[in-house]
Amino acid sequence: MKCANNAPGVEQEDIDRPALRALLQEMLQGMEECDPQAIEPHIEKLKRSISDHHVERIEQQIARFDFGRAKEEILKLLEGLEMEKEA
Question: For residues 35-52, b (16+ Cβ closer than 10 Å) or e, as one string?
Answer without folding.
Answer: ebeebeebbeebeebbee
